[in-house]
Amino acid sequence: ALGKGSDLEKAFATMALVYNNAADPEGKLSKAETKSLLQTQFGGFIQGQENKPKYQEIISALDEELENKIDFEDFMILLVSLALMSDLLQEIKNVKTTK
Known about the structure:
Elements: H1 7-22, E1 29-30, H2 31-41, H3 43-46, H4 53-63, E2 69-70, H5 72-85, H6 87-93
Helix pairs in contact: 2-4
Organism: Ardeotis kori
Pfam families: S_100
Protein name: SNTAN protein
């Protein structure tokens, strides 16, 4: 559907597809599923973050109250939060691409 979309549109569509493929019929993820999805699909961004207090806070919130589920909006906020604190983001920001 986004064959001619921009790189940013394709990236967003990929995030939505990954989420939707993992979500339950109600379109939500358990916190355990969310943690697993982050580890398998977002590992490059969360690698090396284990000692950061904010990362520990986010992950421990996923380990608590497992009956609560995450919707797509909360998942996107989680992704952005983890990406912003990531060392990988800093490396990416230092790379200039030419077209």
